[in-house]
């Protein structure tokens, strides 16, 4: 059964909740100048506390509505409707209203292609014309309000343009990450019953064109419901052609660049996005327009302190993941931000490419993932040191718990020790950031997401659903609905209820463990399914990994619990050493002693394996499930969501030399 918390190590346990092992005493106050001019101050917490719904009303008022809502929230647990009766056009809010306000010449996106020198600046007026043309093109193809459109594109401007064109006409987009296989694409097209697919001949990946169209052909051959495939020419590779295919440039470019945006109901579907599949069969998460745009825009304004007139903002995620949907497309555009979109990988053509981009565009706000930060640590401090990154003022992290050492490295080596780091916890299902420091308010602790944002009722509970006291650990829950919450799993209300609302009656359970420290601040401990049970103690993989990463020789670590006759489960660790560290015979002893000293003897790994790489999902998260298979000498489970399945061979070869 896939309900979070019911996996092999998950919930239903009667033992004590998560042990609270890690002690972290470092604090970083907000910079005084940032605090003095911050978009959001501490009073926001009080306002939301006094009246949560009035707080969200004010956040919604930041958008342009063609009809104001009658009721802020209608709550028929677990089904929520926000801003009931309100009407708005999401694309109008993201594009046209900025042009109408006189900001048409302002850059919406600096697009940086992977091949160096291939770049474009797209103003809000350009975006309005392109989105209008694409909306007219979809209409010509017979796409109507409520129809689903699958989008399978590389990180090129046509991707946000296609999303906004759908939003404009009320069609529901389903973006499928460009790295997915034909069968993954097919199952997503099928599940959403998409009528049109928008794709490209290919994209650039590590200096070479990488084809997309053959994958689409293979998928669409088995999807009779698809009527048209629109193909962007990006790489000019040869492509096979079917009678469903039409070139984007033939179809879109001849359209009128004017299109009148009709208002849609606040609760009309905006998009479906399948979760990344770290734990099992992906779920089609459904988001609607009004509440989603309200919360993505407000959180982007608050958590990044975005000043649209002066900031240059860069979120390095792929638009194929929720982070890209909410914080490259909808939140930033609703706020009139200037953003950078980068097509490629951080190591092409060299390992300083990210920092070169920061320097080139004078990025002031950078939002990236722990997996990237740990990779940069592994590559060495000297690489970012070569670039001028004095423009940066706020740094963000999302996707996994950030190890305190990685946080401090990010702060020092990327942020020049002057930029606050916001560790933002949220997920596809929540639609927008839920738990995070505020950069002008919070004295942040490295590795902690700190507090629920104003308007969010997150809590940590024990097995029975009772709030844990300060100093306790357990399960993260959300007690009240929030505007950007998923409305259901597409076509499967029962699975929605079972997955998120059944573990703790009346509460949303995201599947993650958390602890609340003595000050009441929250630390996310990863998925409950990743928690280990060692000699009767629940120990989080995150805490042991963070202890390992705090050793100067270690860049990255993954920890799993393997069945052990004595302790129930024993801790097995896989570590990647930092750039210039050679593997030595005593490294295992050294690291085990370090963990024992940092967390206590109970957390000492039974085995430490030095490996060259770790298995990661395509969204960059460590796949502990596969490492558990290795540690327990089982044959490997499903590896299709792995970025690089050869990594597992390299790791398996390491086993006999376990230290
Ligand atoms: P699936 O649900 O299909 O297994 P997934 O959970 O990896 O995939 P996402 O919605 O992209 O898909 O990821 C959300 C999860 O990522 C959260 O539930 C949490 O486990 C983790 N996460 C995200 N941000 C943070 C953070 N700042 N700190 C700790 N964990 C985080
Ligand atoms: Mg998930």
From TrEMBL:
Catalytic activity: acetate + ATP + CoA = acetyl-CoA + AMP + diphosphate
Necessary cofactors: Mg(2+)
Annotated Mg(2+) binding sites: 549, 551, 554
GO-annotated molecular function: acetate-CoA ligase activity; AMP binding; ATP binding; metal ion binding
Stored Gene3D superfamilies: 3.30.300.30, N-terminal domain of ligase-like
Keyword Cytoplasm: no
Pfam families the UniProt entry points to: ACAS_N, AMP-binding, AMP-binding_C
Domain Acetyl-coenzyme A synthetase N-terminal: 43-94
InterPro entries cross-referenced by the UniProt entry: Ac_CoA_lig (IPR011904), ACAS_N (IPR032387), AMP-bd_C (IPR025110), AMP-bd_C_sf (IPR045851), AMP-binding_CS (IPR020845), AMP-dep_synth/lig_dom (IPR000873), ANL_N_sf (IPR042099)
AMP-dependent synthetase/ligase domain: residues covered: 101-482
Post-translational modification note: Acetylated. Deacetylation by the SIR2-homolog deacetylase activates the enzyme.
The protein's Enzyme Commission number: 6.2.1.1
AMP-binding enzyme C-terminal domain ranges (all copies): 543-621
Keywords: Acetylation, ATP-binding, Ligase, Magnesium, Metal-binding, Nucleotide-binding
GO annotations of cellular component type: cytosol
Modified residues (N6-acetyllysine): 621
Domain of life: Bacteria
Residues given in the record as CoA binding sites: 205-208, 323, 535
Family listed: Belongs to the ATP-dependent AMP-binding enzyme family.
Summary of the function given for this chain in its UniProt record: Catalyzes the conversion of acetate into acetyl-CoA (AcCoA), an essential intermediate at the junction of anabolic and catabolic pathways. AcsA undergoes a two-step reaction. In the first half reaction, AcsA combines acetate with ATP to form acetyl-adenylate (AcAMP) intermediate. In the second half reaction, it can then transfer the acetyl group from AcAMP to the sulfhydryl group of CoA, forming the product AcCoA.
PANTHER family: ACETYL-COENZYME A SYNTHETASE, ACETYL-COENZYME A SYNTHETASE 1
Protein's UniProt name: Acetyl-coenzyme A synthetase
Upper classification of the organism: Bacteria, Bacillati, Actinomycetota, Actinomycetes, Streptosporangiales
Gene: acs
């Amino acid at each position: 059964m896939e309900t979070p918390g019911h996996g092999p190590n998950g919930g239903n346990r009667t033992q004590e909740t998560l042990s609270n092992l890690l002690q972290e005493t470092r604090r970083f106050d907000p910079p005084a100048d940032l605090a003095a001019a911050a978009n959001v101050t501490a009073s926001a917490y009080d306002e939301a506390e006094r009246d949560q719904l009035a707080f969200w009303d004010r956040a919604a008022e930041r958008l342009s509505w063609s009809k104001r809502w009658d009721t802020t929230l209608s709550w028929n647990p677990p089904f929520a409707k926000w801003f009931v009766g309100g009407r708005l056009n999401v694309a109008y809010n993201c594009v046209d209203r900025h042009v109408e306000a006189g900001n048409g010449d302002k850059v919406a996106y600096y697009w940086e292609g992977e091949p160096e020198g291939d770049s474009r600046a797209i103003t809000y007026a350009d975006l309005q014309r392109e989105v209008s043309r694409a909306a007219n093109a979809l209409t010509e193809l017979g796409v109507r309000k409520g129809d689903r459109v699958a989008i399978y594109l590389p990180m090129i401007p046509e991707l946000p343009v296609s999303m906004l064109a759908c939003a404009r006409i009320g069609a529901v987009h389903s973006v499928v990450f460009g790295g997915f296989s034909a069968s993954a694409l097919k199952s997503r097209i099928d599940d959403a019953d998409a009528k049109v697919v928008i794709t490209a001949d290919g994209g650039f990946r590590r200096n070479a064109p990488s084809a997309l169209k053959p994958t689409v052909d293979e998928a669409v051959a088995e999807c009779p419901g698809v009527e048209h495939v629109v193909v962007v020419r990006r790489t000019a590779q040869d492509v096979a052609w079917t009678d469903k295919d039409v070139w984007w440039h033939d179809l879109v470019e001849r359209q009128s660049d004017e299109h009148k945006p009709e208002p849609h109901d606040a609760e009309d579907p905006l998009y479906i996005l399948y979760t990344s599949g770290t734990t099992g069969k992906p779920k089609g998460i459904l988001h609607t327009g009004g509440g989603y745009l309200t919360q993505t825009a407000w959180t982007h304004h608050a958590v990044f302190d975005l000043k649209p007139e002066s900031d240059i903002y860069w979120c390095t995620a792929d638009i194929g993941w929720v982070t890209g949907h909410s914080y490259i497309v909808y939140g930033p555009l609703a706020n009139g931000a200037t953003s950078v979109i980068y097509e490629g990988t951080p190591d092409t053509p060299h390992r300083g490419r990210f920092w070169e981009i920061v320097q080139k565009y004078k990025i002031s706000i950078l939002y990236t993932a722990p997996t990237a930060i740990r990779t940069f640590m592994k590559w060495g401090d000297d690489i970012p040191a070569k670039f001028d990154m004095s423009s940066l003022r706020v740094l963000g992290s999302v996707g996994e718990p950030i190890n305190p050492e990685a946080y401090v490295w990010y702060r020092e080596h990327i942020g020049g020790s002057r930029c606050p780091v916001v560790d933002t916890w949220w997920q596809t299902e929540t639609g927008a950031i839920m738990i995070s420091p505020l950069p002008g308010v919070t004295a942040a602790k490295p590795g902690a997401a700190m507090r629920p944002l104003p308007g969010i009722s997150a809590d940590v509970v024990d097995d029975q659903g009772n709030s844990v006291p300060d100093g306790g650990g357990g399960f993260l829950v959300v007690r009240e609905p929030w505007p950007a919450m998923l409305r259901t799993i597409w076509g499967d209300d029962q699975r929605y209820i079972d997955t998120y609302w059944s573990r703790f009656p009346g509460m949303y359970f995201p599947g993650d463990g958390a602890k609340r420290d003595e000050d009441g601040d929250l630390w996310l401990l990863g998925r409950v399914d990743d928690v280990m049970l060692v000699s009767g103690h629940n120990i989080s993989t995150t805490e042991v990994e963070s202890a390992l990463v705090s050793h100067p020789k270690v860049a990255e670590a993954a920890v799993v619990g393997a069945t052990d006759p004595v302790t129930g489960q024993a801790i097995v660790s896989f570590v990647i050493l930092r750039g210039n560290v050679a593997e030595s015979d005593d490294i295992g002893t050294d690291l085990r002693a370090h963990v024992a000293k940092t967390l206590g003897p109970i957390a000492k790994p039974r085995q430490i394996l030095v490996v060259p790489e770790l298995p990661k999902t395509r969204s960059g998260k460590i796949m502990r499930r596969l490492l558990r298979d290795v540690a327990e000498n089982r044959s490997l489970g499903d590896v299709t969501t792995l970025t690089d399945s050869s990594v597992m061979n390299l790791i398996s070869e390491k086993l006999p030399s376990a230290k």
